[in-house]
Amino acid sequence: MAVQQAPSQLGRIICLFGFLLLFHSGYSTFEHLSYLKAVDGHEAGLPLDITIELLMSVALFGLGIVLVADDFKEILMETEMAKQSIESLDARPSFYSFNHRGRAVFRNVVLKD
Amino acid sequence: MSGQQINPDDALYVDMYIAKNSQTMTFIRSSYSAILGLAAGTLGLTNWSGFIFYFLGSAFLSLLIFLVKAKGNPSPYFRQPLDVFTEGVLGGMLSYILFWTLLYGIIHVYD
Protein backbone atom coordinates (compact mmCIF):
# COMPACT_ATOMS: atom_id res chain seq x y z
CA MET A 1 0.00 0.00 0.00
CA ALA A 2 1.10 3.53 -0.58
CA VAL A 3 2.69 5.47 2.25
CA GLN A 4 0.29 7.19 4.63
CA GLN A 5 0.72 10.91 4.82
CA ALA A 6 0.49 12.81 8.09
CA PRO A 7 -3.08 14.00 8.78
CA SER A 8 -3.59 17.75 8.62
CA GLN A 9 -3.53 19.51 12.00
CA LEU A 10 -6.23 21.97 10.91
CA GLY A 11 -8.57 19.09 10.17
CA ARG A 12 -7.93 17.59 13.60
CA ILE A 13 -8.69 20.86 15.35
CA ILE A 14 -11.91 21.27 13.35
CA CYS A 15 -12.90 17.71 14.30
CA LEU A 16 -12.22 18.50 17.95
CA PHE A 17 -14.51 21.55 17.82
CA GLY A 18 -17.15 19.48 16.06
CA PHE A 19 -16.94 16.85 18.77
CA LEU A 20 -17.27 19.42 21.56
CA LEU A 21 -20.34 20.96 19.88
CA LEU A 22 -21.86 17.51 19.32
CA PHE A 23 -21.26 16.48 22.92
CA HIS A 24 -22.68 19.72 24.28
CA SER A 25 -25.78 19.56 22.14
CA GLY A 26 -26.34 15.93 23.12
CA TYR A 27 -26.10 16.87 26.78
CA SER A 28 -28.43 19.84 26.26
CA THR A 29 -30.98 17.57 24.62
CA PHE A 30 -30.83 15.19 27.55
CA GLU A 31 -31.26 18.07 29.99
CA HIS A 32 -34.19 19.49 28.00
CA LEU A 33 -35.95 16.13 28.02
CA SER A 34 -35.39 15.70 31.75
CA TYR A 35 -36.86 19.18 32.31
CA LEU A 36 -39.91 18.35 30.21
CA LYS A 37 -40.41 15.17 32.21
CA ALA A 38 -40.12 17.06 35.50
CA VAL A 39 -42.78 19.62 34.55
CA ASP A 40 -44.95 17.04 32.75
CA GLY A 41 -44.62 18.82 29.44
CA HIS A 42 -45.15 17.26 26.04
CA GLU A 43 -42.22 16.65 23.76
CA ALA A 44 -42.78 18.94 20.79
CA GLY A 45 -39.47 18.93 18.92
CA LEU A 46 -36.10 20.15 20.12
CA PRO A 47 -35.42 23.84 20.80
CA LEU A 48 -34.07 25.66 17.78
CA ASP A 49 -30.67 26.49 19.32
CA ILE A 50 -29.87 22.83 19.99
CA THR A 51 -30.85 21.88 16.45
CA ILE A 52 -28.65 24.62 14.99
CA GLU A 53 -25.74 23.56 17.24
CA LEU A 54 -26.10 19.95 16.07
CA LEU A 55 -26.22 20.85 12.39
CA MET A 56 -23.19 23.10 12.84
CA SER A 57 -21.22 20.29 14.47
CA VAL A 58 -22.18 17.93 11.64
CA ALA A 59 -20.99 20.48 9.09
CA LEU A 60 -17.72 21.02 11.00
CA PHE A 61 -17.12 17.29 11.20
CA GLY A 62 -17.64 16.94 7.45
CA LEU A 63 -14.98 19.54 6.74
CA GLY A 64 -12.63 18.09 9.38
CA ILE A 65 -12.85 14.50 8.17
CA VAL A 66 -12.36 15.53 4.55
CA LEU A 67 -9.23 17.47 5.57
CA VAL A 68 -7.86 14.65 7.73
CA ALA A 69 -8.21 11.93 5.08
CA ASP A 70 -5.36 11.25 2.66
CA ASP A 71 -5.26 13.02 -0.67
CA PHE A 72 -6.44 11.17 -3.75
CA LYS A 73 -3.84 9.64 -6.05
CA GLU A 74 -4.01 10.10 -9.80
CA ILE A 75 -4.85 6.67 -11.16
CA LEU A 76 -3.77 7.07 -14.79
CA MET A 77 -0.70 4.97 -15.62
CA GLU A 78 0.45 7.78 -17.91
CA THR A 79 0.86 10.35 -15.11
CA GLU A 80 2.48 7.74 -12.84
CA MET A 81 5.05 6.82 -15.50
CA ALA A 82 5.85 10.46 -16.14
CA LYS A 83 7.07 10.74 -12.54
CA GLN A 84 9.50 7.80 -12.75
CA SER A 85 13.06 7.98 -14.04
CA ILE A 86 14.46 5.71 -16.76
CA GLU A 87 16.79 4.01 -14.23
CA SER A 88 13.87 2.62 -12.26
CA LEU A 89 12.51 1.07 -15.45
CA ASP A 90 15.89 -0.49 -16.35
CA ALA A 91 16.20 -2.11 -12.93
CA ARG A 92 13.17 -4.36 -13.33
CA PRO A 93 13.65 -8.10 -12.63
CA SER A 94 13.43 -9.26 -16.25
CA PHE A 95 16.68 -7.43 -16.97
CA TYR A 96 18.64 -9.32 -14.31
CA SER A 97 21.26 -11.62 -15.83
CA PHE A 98 22.91 -14.41 -13.86
CA ASN A 99 24.76 -16.25 -16.66
CA HIS A 100 27.30 -13.67 -17.66
CA ARG A 101 31.01 -13.80 -18.45
CA GLY A 102 32.03 -12.59 -14.98
CA ARG A 103 32.47 -16.17 -13.82
CA ALA A 104 35.25 -16.75 -16.38
CA VAL A 105 36.85 -13.32 -16.21
CA PHE A 106 37.19 -13.14 -12.44
CA ARG A 107 38.09 -16.82 -11.91
CA ASN A 108 41.63 -16.03 -10.71
CA VAL A 109 40.75 -13.05 -8.56
CA VAL A 110 41.42 -13.71 -4.89
CA LEU A 111 39.28 -11.69 -2.54
CA LYS A 112 41.06 -10.26 0.46
CA ASP A 113 39.69 -11.18 3.83
CA MET B 1 -1.02 -15.65 -25.33
CA SER B 2 -3.24 -18.69 -25.54
CA GLY B 3 -6.69 -18.37 -24.08
CA GLN B 4 -5.87 -15.38 -21.90
CA GLN B 5 -7.93 -12.28 -22.35
CA ILE B 6 -6.01 -9.05 -21.90
CA ASN B 7 -8.04 -6.25 -20.42
CA PRO B 8 -6.91 -2.98 -22.00
CA ASP B 9 -7.75 -1.15 -18.77
CA ASP B 10 -4.94 -3.02 -16.98
CA ALA B 11 -2.32 -0.94 -18.71
CA LEU B 12 -4.31 2.26 -18.40
CA TYR B 13 -4.66 2.55 -14.62
CA VAL B 14 -2.44 1.92 -11.59
CA ASP B 15 -4.36 -0.70 -9.58
CA MET B 16 -2.70 0.22 -6.30
CA TYR B 17 -3.90 3.82 -6.56
CA ILE B 18 -7.45 2.77 -7.44
CA ALA B 19 -7.47 0.67 -4.25
CA LYS B 20 -5.92 3.54 -2.28
CA ASN B 21 -8.57 6.01 -3.46
CA SER B 22 -11.43 3.69 -2.63
CA GLN B 23 -9.87 3.10 0.79
CA THR B 24 -9.81 6.87 1.37
CA MET B 25 -13.44 7.12 0.27
CA THR B 26 -14.44 4.31 2.62
CA PHE B 27 -12.64 6.02 5.51
CA ILE B 28 -14.40 9.35 4.89
CA ARG B 29 -17.83 7.81 4.34
CA SER B 30 -17.80 5.46 7.31
CA SER B 31 -16.52 8.05 9.78
CA TYR B 32 -19.06 10.58 8.59
CA SER B 33 -21.91 8.04 8.72
CA ALA B 34 -21.11 7.48 12.38
CA ILE B 35 -21.24 11.24 13.03
CA LEU B 36 -24.50 11.60 11.09
CA GLY B 37 -25.91 8.71 13.11
CA LEU B 38 -24.99 10.45 16.38
CA ALA B 39 -26.71 13.65 15.19
CA ALA B 40 -29.82 11.81 13.99
CA GLY B 41 -30.14 9.95 17.29
CA THR B 42 -29.77 13.18 19.25
CA LEU B 43 -32.37 14.92 17.10
CA GLY B 44 -34.72 12.02 17.79
CA LEU B 45 -35.47 11.27 14.17
CA THR B 46 -37.61 8.23 13.49
CA ASN B 47 -38.64 6.26 10.42
CA TRP B 48 -38.13 7.81 6.99
CA SER B 49 -36.95 11.17 8.28
CA GLY B 50 -33.78 9.43 9.52
CA PHE B 51 -33.01 7.99 6.11
CA ILE B 52 -33.77 11.30 4.42
CA PHE B 53 -31.37 12.95 6.88
CA TYR B 54 -28.71 10.38 5.95
CA PHE B 55 -29.05 11.01 2.25
CA LEU B 56 -28.99 14.79 2.73
CA GLY B 57 -25.87 14.43 4.88
CA SER B 58 -24.20 12.19 2.31
CA ALA B 59 -25.00 14.66 -0.44
CA PHE B 60 -23.37 17.39 1.64
CA LEU B 61 -20.32 15.17 2.20
CA SER B 62 -20.11 14.32 -1.50
CA LEU B 63 -20.11 18.00 -2.28
CA LEU B 64 -17.29 18.56 0.24
CA ILE B 65 -15.23 15.71 -1.23
CA PHE B 66 -15.85 17.03 -4.71
CA LEU B 67 -14.77 20.56 -3.81
CA VAL B 68 -11.99 19.98 -1.23
CA LYS B 69 -10.49 16.55 -1.98
CA ALA B 70 -10.93 16.39 -5.75
CA LYS B 71 -10.59 20.17 -6.21
CA GLY B 72 -13.61 20.31 -8.50
CA ASN B 73 -12.28 17.80 -11.01
CA PRO B 74 -12.71 14.12 -10.05
CA SER B 75 -11.77 12.57 -13.39
CA PRO B 76 -8.02 11.94 -12.68
CA TYR B 77 -8.89 10.07 -9.48
CA PHE B 78 -11.76 7.75 -10.45
CA ARG B 79 -12.54 5.53 -13.39
CA GLN B 80 -16.00 7.04 -13.59
CA PRO B 81 -16.04 10.66 -12.39
CA LEU B 82 -19.52 10.16 -10.84
CA ASP B 83 -18.03 7.62 -8.40
CA VAL B 84 -17.10 10.54 -6.18
CA PHE B 85 -20.81 11.00 -5.40
CA THR B 86 -21.86 7.37 -5.07
CA GLU B 87 -18.96 5.27 -3.75
CA GLY B 88 -19.58 3.90 -0.26
CA VAL B 89 -22.95 5.59 0.35
CA LEU B 90 -24.86 2.35 0.95
CA GLY B 91 -21.98 0.78 2.90
CA GLY B 92 -21.96 3.69 5.33
CA MET B 93 -25.66 3.28 6.01
CA LEU B 94 -25.04 0.28 8.29
CA SER B 95 -22.83 2.21 10.69
CA TYR B 96 -25.29 5.11 10.42
CA ILE B 97 -28.15 2.91 11.66
CA LEU B 98 -25.95 1.52 14.44
CA PHE B 99 -25.10 4.94 15.90
CA TRP B 100 -28.57 6.36 15.20
CA THR B 101 -30.27 3.67 17.28
CA LEU B 102 -27.56 3.85 19.96
CA LEU B 103 -27.93 7.59 20.58
CA TYR B 104 -31.72 7.48 20.21
CA GLY B 105 -31.76 4.83 22.90
CA ILE B 106 -29.40 6.70 25.23
CA ILE B 107 -31.09 10.09 25.00
CA HIS B 108 -34.76 9.51 24.16
CA VAL B 109 -35.60 6.08 25.52
CA TYR B 110 -33.58 5.23 28.64
CA ASP B 111 -33.42 8.54 30.44
UniProtKB/TrEMBL annotation, chain A:
It is a multi-pass membrane protein. Keywords: Endoplasmic reticulum, Membrane, Transmembrane, Transmembrane helix. One of its GO terms (molecular function) is inorganic cation transmembrane transporter activity. It is found in: Endoplasmic reticulum membrane. Belongs to the membrane magnesium transporter (TC 1.A.67) family. The chain crosses the membrane at residues 12-30, 50-69. It holds the Pfam family MMgT. PANTHER family: ER MEMBRANE PROTEIN COMPLEX SUBUNIT 5, PTHR21181. This is Membrane magnesium transporter 1. GO terms for cellular component: early endosome; EMC complex; Golgi apparatus; plasma membrane. Its main location: endoplasmic reticulum. It comes from Entomortierella parvispora. It comes from the Eukaryota. Component of the ER membrane protein complex (EMC).
Automatic annotation (TrEMBL), chain B:
The keyword Transmembrane applies. It comes from the Eukaryota. It is found in: Endoplasmic reticulum membrane. It is a multi-pass membrane protein. Keywords: Endoplasmic reticulum, Membrane, Transmembrane, Transmembrane helix. Pfam families: EMC6 (PF07019). Signal peptide: none annotated. GO terms for cellular component: EMC complex. The chain crosses the membrane at residues 26-45, 51-68, 89-110. One of its GO terms (biological process) is protein folding in endoplasmic reticulum. InterPro entries: Emc6 (IPR008504), EMC6-like (IPR029008). Belongs to the EMC6 family. This is ER membrane protein complex subunit 6. The lineage of its organism: Eukaryota, Fungi, Fungi incertae sedis, Mucoromycota, Mortierellomycotina.
